[in-house]
Amino acid sequence: MKSRFKLTYSFWLKIIVVLLILYFGEVSNIACLFQGEYVPAEKSKLHGSGQIYFVPLQTFPTDVLKRFVSFYRNKYGMSISILPAVSLPSGAFNLERRQFVAEELIQFLQQTARDLMLDADSTIIAVTDRDSTSGSLIGAMHLATDQV
Prior knowledge:
Collagenase (Catalytic Domain), 6 strands
């Protein structure tokens, strides 16, 4: 007797993939399951110069940055300073997408480095708990949606 619902192998495979995505969140999370163990770089392989600065954007917690500084100082002997939290110009945040605009952030951080008269070989790392996107990507998406 034939079954009313003949389910194929590909159907079950699709069901399993959907369930895995629902469970793990995103396809990239599933791919992480098959990667090898992460091995951090050895101190002897790191070569750089200049001071590193962490700058919290808006309300990012400074205590988290202090733990980062402690970790990198203990593990790699790096000298990292924390700059005061900064308020960003309105153009640095896209309210519609609820994301920072990367180009605006970079320009703002470059100006901050000049204002603070930091050495040219200094590196500023902005830390946030918000998403960011490329302004040119936003423009391209607006163009694409306008043409639809």
